[in-house]
């Protein structure tokens, strides 16, 4: 094992969100690849390796995020997925991936509601990559 | 056909039967509210029974005898008044005293029918009540629709304004927490993104103001002879810096002296919107070709402005909904392109002022051509 940088995939159609997370993750010593939507993310999933994915729930298609999480887990169940959502604050809907029952249909290891603070994201990444 | 429920409350059976007969085959034509109205009559022989019936299913029209053995007509009115039912009450009175009328009206009675009355008089009174009921219902529906549209508009505006604020707030938090490291290039990029998002928000607010001004018709229009080609040239100059930055070629083909009576600022908005879209949704190194001419070759057919680009284009489904408020085509090609989603709906509303039309022809990946036709006379 080399102590290579851990690589994180960010998938979100909001370029400001991607940019914000990327500069912070890079400053914190991670390697980052980005996709603005489902199609590009699928390409990266086939061609690249990454250690963790940060996926927005709502992209151009209503629940592309769910589908993508499912695809990532199908390819490699050991890659942790953090799902990010702006849904909670806008529609009053609540999602969580805290119980195993919820995790069985939401293929994510963790859910964060937008706006997310970097400290919080950092903690989740640390927790999920430790195992 | 709409059927209104009528409840007749009278202790005399003859009266109830008479009402049922008079209204059985009776219909009222209401062209204003869309069609014919018929009546279905049920009966109650006491105030108590009427209250039960109303409690169970409130009728549309209540024919209520004033003088009843137990609970009187006025009592019935007093008990149902607080419920604010969508119901018209017609009081049937043997001797219409002023006091009775005043008391009944205070409790919400809509009309009076003095006993004895002919079937014709009954029908005339019921017709009046039905008319009033249907018109009131129509008005309520329109008011609700208007409120719904207004709320929807506000909801979308709020959402559209929140998104740049969220982005800028995110950047400020990063700067505050110092989590982006100290690369001055990154800092510079952060500031540029903030400026861009705030610029987009300003554009959105300007568009909203343009839209409300056009829709309210409050902005005084100054109709003068406008040289459309000259306005097009200025609009192209305005777009040149953005176009050059992405190596996009702009061109103008204009018939000599194309003029029409119009409000100059409206023509400017039309051309600026069309050209800035053609640049925004183009590929780097693409082309934008603007042409201005008379429709059908002569000055009487109006003016045609066409803006063709070699940009990303769009599907038929997308072009069909393009001109509605706040519609933005979201896909991987448009992502990162900022816009208020109002430009084209403004364009369409302006074209309407000139009895004109806006059409779009588009091929995904190959480009789009927007064509605006303006008739000679601007409608005031």
> Per DSSP, what share of the residues of chain A sits in E-state strands of 2 or more residues?
15-25%
Quaternary state, please?
Answer: heterodimer
Helix count of chain A equals 6
For the largest beta sheet of chain B, what order do the strands appear in spatially? 2-3-1-4-5-6
Q: How would you portray this structure in words?
A:
The complex is a heterodimer of chains A (131) and B (380). Chain A is α/β, with parallel strands linked by helices and 131 residues long. Chain A has 6 helices and 5 strands. Chain A has helices at 15-27, 38-47, 64-75, 87-91, 100-105, 118-130, and strands at 7-11, 31-35, 52-56, 81-85, 110-113. Chain A has a 5-stranded parallel beta sheet, sandwiched between helices. In chain A, strand 1 (7-11), helix 1 (15-27) and strand 2 form a beta-alpha-beta unit. In chain A, 40% of the residues are buried. The mean pLDDT of chain A is 83. With 380 residues, chain B is of the alpha/beta class. The A-B interface holds A 13-17, 19-20, 23-24, 26-28, 36-37, 39-40, 60, 90, 114-115, 117-119 and B 159, 163, 166-167, 169-171, 173-174, 177, 179-181, 186, 189-190, 193, 197, 330-332, 335-336.
């Amino acid at each position: 094992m080399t102590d290579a940088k851990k690589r994180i995939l960010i998938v979100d159609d909001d370029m400001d969100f991607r940019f914000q997370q990327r500069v912070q993750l890079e400053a914190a010593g991670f390697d980052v690849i980005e996709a603005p939507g489902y199609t590009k993310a699928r390409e990266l999933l086939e061609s690249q390796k990454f250690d963790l994915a940060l996926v927005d729930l709502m992209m151009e298609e209503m629940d592309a995020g769910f589908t993508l999480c499912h695809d990532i887990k199908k390819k490699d169940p050991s890659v942790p997925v953090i799902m990010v959502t702006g849904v909670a604050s806008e529609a009053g809907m609540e999602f969580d991936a805290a119980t195993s029952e919820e995790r069985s249909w939401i293929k994510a290891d963790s859910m964060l509601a937008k706006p997310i603070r970097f400290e919080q994201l950092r903690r989740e990444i640390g927790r999920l990559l430790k195992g | 056909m709409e059927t209104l429920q009528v409840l007749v409350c009278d202790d005399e059976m003859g009266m109830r039967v008479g009402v049922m007969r008079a209204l059985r085959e009776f219909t009222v034509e209401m062209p204003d509210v869309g069609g014919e109205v018929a009546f279905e009559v049920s009966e109650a022989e006491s105030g108590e029974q009427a209250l039960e019936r109303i409690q169970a299913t409130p009728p549309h029209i209540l024919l209520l005898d004033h003088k009843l053995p137990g609970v009187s007509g006025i009592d019935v009115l007093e008990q149902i008044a607080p419920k604010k039912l969508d119901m018209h009450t017609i009081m049937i009175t043997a001797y219409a005293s002023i006091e009775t009328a005043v008391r009944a009206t205070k409790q919400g009675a809509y009309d009076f029918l003095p006993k004895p009355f002919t079937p014709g008089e009954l029908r005339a009174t019921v017709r009046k009540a039905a008319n009033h009921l249907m018109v009131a219902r129509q008005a309520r529906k329109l008011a609700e629709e208007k409120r719904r549209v207004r709320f929807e508009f506000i909801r979308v505006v709020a959402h559209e304004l929140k998104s740049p604020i969220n982005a800028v707030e995110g950047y400020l938090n990063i700067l505050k927490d110092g989590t982006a490291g100290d690369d001055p290039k990154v800092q510079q990029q952060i500031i540029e993104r903030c400026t861009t998002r705030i610029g987009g928000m300003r554009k959105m607010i300007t568009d909203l103001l343009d839209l409300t001004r056009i829709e309210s018709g409050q902005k005084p229009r100054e109709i003068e002879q406008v040289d459309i080609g000259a306005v097009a040239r200025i609009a192209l100059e305005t777009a040149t810096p953005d176009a050059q930055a992405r190596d996009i070629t702009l061109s103008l083909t204009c018939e000599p002296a194309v003029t029409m009576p119009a409000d100059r600022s409206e023509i400017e908005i039309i051309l600026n919107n069309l050209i800035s879209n053609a640049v925004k949704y183009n590929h780097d190194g693409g082309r934008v070709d603007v042409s201005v001419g008379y429709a059908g070759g002569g000055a009487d057919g109006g003016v045609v402005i066409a803006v063709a680009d070699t940009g990303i284009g769009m599907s038929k489904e997308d072009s069909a909904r393009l001109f509605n408020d706040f519609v933005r085509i979201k896909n991987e090609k448009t992502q990162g392109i900022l816009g208020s989603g109002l430009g084209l709906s403004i364009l369409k509303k302006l074209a309407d002022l000139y009895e004109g039309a806006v059409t779009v022809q588009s091929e995904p990946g190959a480009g789009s051509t927007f064509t605006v036709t303006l008739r000679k006379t601007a409608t005031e």
